[in-house]
């Protein structure tokens, strides 16, 4: 078995429940070779209660922790970027980052944004605003694709986050060809950016899903496309730092994946699963 790494980690600087140091200690206990922090970037939106407000404190603490744990575990500095930032449009990547994740937690309509991962009620409000599941998916994916095409982030976060509350098909039947084909059309477009797709176990840790994002039919397409992947836990607390990692690795191998990407001091490299 390969040693573990996780690049999707939150802390008290955004909406996580533990300090950076507590998360690092948990990763050491779990036998990780590296840990990357991906606090939610500052968006400036008044409705965004997850964003980092003390960005200098965040990077300074990560620098200090990197030095403190040198030789024990490698610490990487990152951010989870949103597709839009108040007053700026697209986010600008902070030069202090070793890597960045680009995630769409929202989709935008003329009336404004709707969240796909806040509550099922909010999801349904978005459905009413867009008019149909197809339109909701189109809005979500158009936003994510243009974001991925315009901003040079490294990893596409939880690509089908809109399924968070859909365990057992509660909101819509994902397997219907009209929804599947639509999703795969956009997966193909995203794959052309060359970015790494995240296999994210975060919703399992929170009790919303039994399997990681994205859904198996998307994973199979990613394999066909030979798209690079990376496993992460999107952890918001010490108890979920390696949530479902072993099972997810096994699942990926059964689908046919043989490698994933790993961040090193010299950038991303491919390692065996
Ligand atoms: Zn996220
Ligand atoms: Zn996250």
> What bound compounds does this protein have?
zinc ion
- Amino-to-carboxy terminus distance: 8 Å
Kindly report the name of the CATH homologous superfamily: Metal-dependent hydrolases
Helix coverage percent of residues? Answer: 25-40%
- Tell me, what is the CATH class? Alpha Beta
Strand content: 15-25%
List the total number of helices: 8
What topology does this entry show?
Elements: E1 4-6, H1 20-29, E2 32-40, H2 55-68, E3 74-82, E4 99-103, E5 106-109, E6 112-115, H3 120-130, H4 133-150, E7 155-156, H5 177-191, E8 196-200, H6 202-205, H7 216-224, E9 229-232, H8 245-255, E10 259-264, E11 267-272
Parallel strand pairs: 1-2, 2-3, 3-4, 4-7, 7-8, 8-9
Antiparallel strand pairs: 5-6, 10-11
What does this structure look like?
The chain contains 8 helices and 11 strands. The longest helix is centred in the middle third of the chain and has 18 residues, at 133-150. It has one domain (4-272): TIM Barrel, CATH 3.20.20.140. It has helices at residues 20-29, 55-68, 120-130, 133-150, 177-191, 202-205, 216-224, 245-255; strands spanning 4-6, 32-40, 74-82, 99-103, 106-109, 112-115, 155-156, 196-200, 229-232, 259-264, 267-272. The chain is α/β, with parallel strands linked by helices and 273 residues long. The strands form 3 sheets. The protein has a 7-stranded parallel sheet with strand order 1-2-3-4-7-8-9. Helices cover 34% and strands 21% of the residues. The mean pLDDT is 95. Bound molecules: zinc ion (2 copies). One zinc ion binds at residues 8, 10, 80, 234.
């Amino acid at each position: 078995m390969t040693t573990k790494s996780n690049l999707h980690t939150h802390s008290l600087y955004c909406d996580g429940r533990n300090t950076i140091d507590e998360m690092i200690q948990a990763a050491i206990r779990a036998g990780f070779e590296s840990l990357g922090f991906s606090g939610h970037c500052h968006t400036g939106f008044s409705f965004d209660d997850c964003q980092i407000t003390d960005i200098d404190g965040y990077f300074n603490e990560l620098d200090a922790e990197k030095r403190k744990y040198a030789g024990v575990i490698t610490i990487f500095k990152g951010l989870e970027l949103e597709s839009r930032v108040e007053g700026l449009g697209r986010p600008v990547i902070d030069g202090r980052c070793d890597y960045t994740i680009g995630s769409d937690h929202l989709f935008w309509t003329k009336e404004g944004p709707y969240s796909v991962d806040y509550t099922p009620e909010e999801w349904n409000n978005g459905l009413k605003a867009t008019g149909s599941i197809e339109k909701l998916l189109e809005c979500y994916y158009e936003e994510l694709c243009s974001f991925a095409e315009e901003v040079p982030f490294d990893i596409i976060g939880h690509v089908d986050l809109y399924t968070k509350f859909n365990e057992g098909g509660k909101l819509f039947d994902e397997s219907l060809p009209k929804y599947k084909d639509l999703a795969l059309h956009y997966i193909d477009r995203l794959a052309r950016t060359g970015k790494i797709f995240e296999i994210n176990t975060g919703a399992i840790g929170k009790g919303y899903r039994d399997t990681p994002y994205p859904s198996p039919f998307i994973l199979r397409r990613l394999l066909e496309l030979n798209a690079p992947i990376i496993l992460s836990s999107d952890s918001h607390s010490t108890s979920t730092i390696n949530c479902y990692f072993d099972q997810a690795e096994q699942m990926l191998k059964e689908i046919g994946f043989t490698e994933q990407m790993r961040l090193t001091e010299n950038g991303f490299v491919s390692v065996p699963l």
